[in-house]
Amino acid sequence: MKRVQIFDTTLRDGEQSPGISLTPKNKLEIARQLDRLGVDVIETGFPISSSGDFEAVSLIASKVSRPVICALSRAKEEDIDVAWQAIKEAANPRIHTFVMASDIQIKKQLNKSYAEVLEMVSMAVSRAKRHVWDVEFSPMDATRANFDFLLEMIGLAIKNGATVINIPDTVGISTPDSFGQLIKYLVEAFPWLGDKVTLSVHCHNDLGMATANALVALQNGANQVECTINGLGERAGNTALEEIAMIIDTLPDLALETNVKTPEISKTSRLITNLTGYSVQHNKAIVGRNAFAHSSGIHQDGVLKSSDTYEIIKPERIGLKTNKLVLGKTSGKHAFKEYLSELEISLPEEYFKEAFRRFKKLADKKAEITEADVEAIVNEVCLSGEEVYHLVDLSVCGKDGDMPIVNVVVSKNGEKKKASAEGKGHVSAIAAAINNALQINGQITDYEVKSITEGSDSQAYVICKVLVNEKTYTGSGSDEDVLKASAIAYLRAVSRALA
Ligand code: KIV
Ligand code: ZN
Description:
Elements: E1 2-3, E2 5-8, H1 24-37, E3 41-45, H2 51-63, E4 68-74, H3 77-87, E5 93-100, H4 103-110, H5 114-131, E6 135-140, H6 147-159, E7 164-169, H7 176-189, E8 198-203, H8 210-219, E9 224-227, H9 241-250, E10 256-257, H10 265-276, H11 297-305, H12 333-342, H13 349-365, H14 371-385, E11 389-397, E12 405-412, E13 415-422, H15 426-438, E14 443-451, E15 460-468, E16 471-479, H16 482-498
Parallel strand pairs: 1-10, 2-3, 2-9, 3-4, 4-5, 5-6, 6-7, 7-8, 8-9
Antiparallel strand pairs: 11-12, 12-13, 14-15, 15-16
Helix pairs in contact: 1-2, 1-10, 2-3, 3-5, 5-6, 7-8, 13-14, 15-16
């Protein structure tokens, strides 16, 4: 069995997805969950890029001790020094530095000669090495680079002490065949790659081949995969962690293993959806809502007779459990607490009280309370507990054919602000009223409503992307009332802009 290192970059490449803006607290919560999931390395951010990123990376470095804590930096002295400042408290720190490698990027973007690029490689790796033993080097756009030049860059990085060489398919142009060959040639050229020096791959999904490319790289000598939860990341995203982990878990003939605790997958995926506002497509492998649903008669018949007729993974393997306890409107505090502990959720007392209050309110209207309902409630309580702006009241009026009028009351640190507005539709009127209350000019650029469970009594989950001063912010909110969920989501997005 070859042990594969799982390098999670949800907090760095994943956060580069447009509209995701996680707070340092959100990032710490995600890092803690990634730790429980068993990833080997967490790429926590790009510290020079913003003070928020720096804060998040340092917070995680000081609080999460088992995995390697990695920070990204360009090949610039200041970047590398700042990356080190951010991770220096970590028990296992790593600096990841990168230099453009393809002719296209070197000529058209960097505007340097090969010799100058090679100087950057030596400088970056040796500078990082002054601070920390564990240094990862990436020749960016490696799959479009001149092969001999790529070899020179890698040789130089290793000579200067790189402990990990990462091969990015930055634009997602490789096929499994071409990527597998490239990895094979690199191992032939540097036999210690994949052994004394870790050989990593970082595949983008522009042509839908990121997971296949990562897998074939492992079969040809790579021993680290960079990936993200739910496949988030720049453009079409990166190799999805849950896919690579479950391929390895499901197919023993591959003779590969990871440290991923697969029963944590489902929960991690939901946490990322809730905090980023990026929902998962229904038919997404492993974590999509339909990944274990059987709808055709023949399939249902087979699964009822024996689940392995149409199911290659048992849902429990990724942590989808059927709770022993069933919650309903007669359930009391004790049953609710038990249910939370079955979900491994523990809340501070005041959050518990609020979650219980919301549960009772929902149970009055909805016959069957599911795990997804409870998670949505807990998530709402935790998010609103940390927020500066709160929705205190919302009223919507207007007959069919009239312009709806919305009145809102929003509070900040106990101080209430009231405002009203008209809009072409209910949601635009809500946005306009919140804009008036907060004296901000937000514009909805994307709006999505999902039902948390099946049935017409489901809670609504709304994701809203809002443009404020040319930057997009995302907010999400859930409630039994779709308009209230919309107001919460909009308010969350604009309060990120105000923060
Ligand atoms: O896609 C890419 O090339 C990257 C590098 C920084 C590794 O994200
Ligand atoms: Zn990338």
